[in-house]
Amino acid sequence: MHISEGVLSVPILAAGAALTVGFTAQGLRSMKAEDVPATGIVSAGLFVASLIHVSLGPSSVHLLLNGISGAILGWAIFPACVVALFLQALLFQFGGLAVLGVNVMDMAFPGLIFGALFRLLFVSRGKWALLLGGFLCSAGGVILTALMTAGVLALNGEGFMAAAKLIVWAHIPVALIEGFVGAMAVLFLAKVRPDMIGRKQGELL
Amino acid sequence: MSDSPLGRIDPRWKILLAFAVAIVVSFSREIHSSALLLGYGVFLAFLGRLSPKETLKRLGAVNGLLITLWLTLPLTTGGETVRLAGLDLSLEGIDLAGNITLKSSAMVLVLMALLGTSQTHLVMRGLKELGLSTKLVTLLHFCSRYIHVITDENRRIHEAAALRGYRPGITPRGLRTTASMVASLLVKSYDRSVRVNDALLLRGFDGTFPSVHEPSRAALPDLAWFGGIVVLFGGCLVF
Predict the structure, then answer these.
(1) What's this model's pTM, rounded to 2 decimal places?
(2) How many angstroms separate the Cα of A124 from the Cα of each of A121, A181, B105, B217?
(3) How far does the CA of residue B144 sit from the closest CA of chain A (Å)?
């Protein structure tokens, strides 16, 4: 869920931009110059995977994958999100330029938090810990993104409260779907490419 | 791409103007100034020779948020109300939703006309010349280059799954297949990143690309008339 250009007031846009600049600078510092191309390609993979739709009754939802992105990219999720959302503004005109900071914050911050929690608490504790961690961190990423997006709208003015509540409710089924998909995807990665989530072959399962 | 008057302009100037318009759009609170900005967007779209059909399609693809705001703001904002179809709608709410719609439409047009008329790699070079961090520009470069490649991978995986009877739905099997697709895409992109990384190291890549280009210089006539567009934008601000 991107907030489009022209919705938010200037102080909120400025705060979002300032936070994103700070976090992105830290993310760039954490990347070695020679690792940048590989990070870019993995970000492209996450970008394409997040366009996969799951039918839900008459409509369909697409995955956010920010929890799993955080587990794979760590701090680099911030620059990766800046790049992905800038490309979306450039190619599809989703989101915008002034609102980029707020949108990156809403997506990348939950990813950073839940990705770190996943690596800290659930990795190397066996199959069930991976499944549980994959579920909680994927679903948690979506819920926190929805809460932050809603919070930003609520700060924007009294009239936006109803839209903010709607956004949170609408994201609960998305969070559940993403939780199940995330749990199974994490298990797949642990079997096939455990080094993607920071461990060597055989250490995860 | 570059067969329009705007396509010939140095991307750097267009990036700066796009950011300037984005900032002004954020400050615009009056419906008439937002309408003026939308008019400016239409003017730029005309200069960028955007295809009307494609542009209307993009404008019509309003995101869920705008629809949500139209459904909620007129009902929840206070102030004077107007009775319509048995509902008391707040005038202030309608004004706010209309204002937001004008502003986001203006920005879609400006982005399409200014940044959509230059090739993506030139926009990136422009960003680098404007002083954006080299790492971030390199990241942007690789991400945008490989989105196309991985989209093809994704299509192949989808076709293979569809042939085997996969329907994207909320069933245990559907979700498991979706998860395998997501994970396969990630594994494929990760493997590709390792291969590309090895190939780059082999060629002496040290985190930056040697520039084979002359630094871009704007032709004077182009600069002159683009200056005119910017002045016109300044005129919009005064009103």
Answers:
(1) 0.91
(2) 9, 20, 49, 55
(3) 7
